[in-house]
Amino acid sequence: MKTERFEQRLQEQPLRQPPAEWRREILGAARLVNRADDRLPATAHGWSWVALRQWLWPCPEAWAALAAAWIASAALSLATPSTPAASPEPEARLRPERIRGYVQERQLLSRLLEPAPPSSPAAAPAPAVVPRPRTFLSATWRFA
């Protein structure tokens, strides 16, 4: 059967009215939903509680699990006693001997890092040998 014939036959069919009790029932349910939506306050951003509930509805178990995790985390954090930071023990405090040791180490380090005084040309170290290029590697690594 072609689509045009089907559409013609569909247009020829008379429309029947639904029973009056169905109409009253459907319209009554729609009015109740409409009233329930009107009673819920909208937020400053234009969200109604119904819209928020519909957005969260696809997986209520996930939201419940997330809420339970937050509650458990808050309970554990409140149950754990908070201890103030411990003051350093006397052994860990800087004593004068330690301070003197640090100063001596710094002085020694600064002496070691000072540039060496220029020496005579006879005592100059021999120049470092510069390695020659390894040509066999360049022959094996050719790029097309």
What fraction strand?
Answer: under 5%
Coarse shape: elongated
Report the radius of gyration as a whole number of Å: 44 Å
Quaternary structure: single chain
Number of helices: 6
Distance between termini? 66 Å
Q: What is the number of E strands?
A: 0
- The portion of residues assigned to helices is 55-70%
Secondary-structure-derived class? mainly alpha
Order of helices and strands: HHHHHH
Q: Taking all residues together, what is the mean pLDDT?
A: 77
Q: Give the uncertain stretches in residue-range form.
A: none
Taking the sheet with the most strands, its summary is:
none
Task: Give the gist of this structure.
The chain is mostly helical and 144 residues long.
What attributes characterize this protein structure?
mainly alpha, 144 residues, single chain, 0% strand
Write the layout of secondary structure elements.
Blueprint: H1 3-12, H2 20-39, H3 49-56, H4 60-79, H5 96-113, H6 135-140
Structural summary, described in words:
Helix content is 57%, strand content 0%. The longest helix is centred in the first third of the chain and has 20 residues, at 20-39. With 144 residues, it is an all-alpha fold. The protein has a domain at 19-55. The protein is built from six helices and no strands.
